[in-house]
Amino acid sequence: MMLAGKVAVVTGAGGGIGREIALAMALAGAKVVVNDIGASLTGQGPTSATPGEQTVQIIAQRGGEAVLNTESVSAWDSAQKIVQAALSAFGRIDIVVNNAGILRDQIFHKMSVEDWRAVIDVHLNGTFYVSRAAAEHFRKQGSGAFVHMTSTSGLIGNFGQANYSAAKLGIAALSKSIALDMQRFGVRSNCIAPFAWSRMTSSIPAETEAEKARVARLQQMTPDKNAPLAVYLASDAAKDVTGQIFAARMNEIFVFSQPRPARSTHRGEGWTPEAIAETAMPALRSAFLPLDRSGDVFSWDPV
Q1: Which of these, 64, 86, 79, lies nearest to 9 by C-alpha position?
Q2: Residue 69 CB coordination number (10 Å)
Q3: CB-based contacts of 203: which residues, under 8 Å, 6+ apart?
Q4: Set 164, 197, 232, 246: catalytic member
Q5: How far, in Å, CA of 10 to CA of 7, rounded?
Q6: Which residues, in sequence order, are bridge partners of residue 253?
Q7: Which residues belong to any copy of the Ketoreductase domain (predicted)?
Q8: What is the pTM of this model?
Q9: Is 241 exposed, middle or buried, given 0-12, 13-18 or 19+ CB atoms closer than 10 A?
Q10: pLDDT tens digits for range 96-146
Q11: Phi and psi of 10, rounded to 5°?
Q12: Is 129 a catalytic residue?
């Protein structure tokens, strides 16, 4: 019962990774606000309370406590209501898991402004709004844990996901800033880059043999594999872990490096464009990174 006595908000908890994290946190003793608007993968069309209700029902059947919230993370006022739901139902808030997300994949030169803004609003702005709404309560009580979902699409790269990749890399930077700003108040902030076959990955193309092989690997990775790491990061057992980026891939757990200078070159008289071309770039080139995608870096079969 690593989370006994704690109250958690899990956004996007109506299915997939969010549902598994909500279930695991309830089993670990937390009271859970299950947040989900029940929208489509693209965030378009009608919404439904049913997915979130199902998660609440499963938690109740297993002896846990949970309430449903159907507010959107993508607006400041509704994000305030998500946090207030925890205070109204359970009297406090200790954990925020920012998991809600949508996808609107498109090759960059065809991506619309609407698709850009929609994904940024849910992922990056939504993570800020919900986190900011909880931050004052965390500060006053001198404790709290944020667990944000980033992605290797942002940390490494992927085709057709400029909006999603930008949002997910932005979340990693936001998490680090939260960790720096709120450490003095006993508040921690970490990221997970989850690997799982879920609604969020079902749009990955599987036309070529290489793409089919990648999808087959993903399908082995069930959403529940990410939940133990989220529970740990939210618990007091992780009281000295903050500002980090982790990944959960089947039975593997990774910690990611974060950008730091890799190599430098110096010229006492300063640089001209010609000198950069002739001297600096040849000296720095061995530290260049290739145009990798997530699947290129995580290319081995999950075990």
Answers
A1: 86
A2: 25
A3: 41, 103, 105
A4: 164
A5: 10
A6: 248
A7: 6-203
A8: 0.93
A9: middle
A10: 999 999 999 999 999 999 999 999 999 999 999 999 999 999 999 999 999
A11: -120, 115
A12: no
